[in-house]
Amino acid sequence: MFGMGFTEIVIIAIIAILFLGPDKLPDAMVQIAKFFRSTKNTISSMKHSLEEEMNVKSMKEEALAYKKGLLDVTEEVKSATDIKKMAAKLTTLEDDDFSGVFDQPSKATTPLAQSKPDEVTLPKKKEDSKNV
């Protein structure tokens, strides 16, 4: 107990009997036992609260990780739906992005697109010289 051997405990008991006397020794032993019990309970409650704190700390870390993930996803959604940025990207595209798409006219495959458009002419009305 407390790193003491049997002989040290006996010496302490003899000194306690000499100073306290046989009348007060039982009360002193009860007080010492209460002190050790309250110390043990205090240490136990501190250990319990420390374990709770450690658990709360891990829960806080986990909540912060989820929060960071949600903020990242929110930023991605905002950037994906930002119309102004999309419009700016479209206006700053260079011709190199369309390498050869508009260089040669496309050949149409439908018969309507291959034929020449018909010219439509309307006959002119002859003016009556009588009405004028």
Q: How would you portray this structure in words?
A:
The protein has helices spanning 6-80, 83-91, 111-114. It has a domain at 6-86. By secondary structure, the protein is an all-alpha fold. The protein is rod-shaped.
Highlighted features:
single chain, 132 residues, mainly alpha, 3 helices, 67% helix
Report the end-to-end length measured between terminal Cα atoms: 137 Å
Helix fraction, binned, reads 55-70%
State Rg.
49 Å
SSE order in H/E notation? HHH
Q: Are there runs of 5+ residues with pLDDT below 50, and where?
A: none
Strand composition percent: under 5%
User: Main β-sheet, in a few words?
Assistant: none
User: How many helical elements?
Assistant: 3
Dominant shape? rod-shaped
What is the count of β-strands?
Answer: 0
| Structural class by secondary-structure content | mainly alpha
Mean pLDDT: 76
Entry summary:
The chain has 132 residues and is an all-alpha fold.
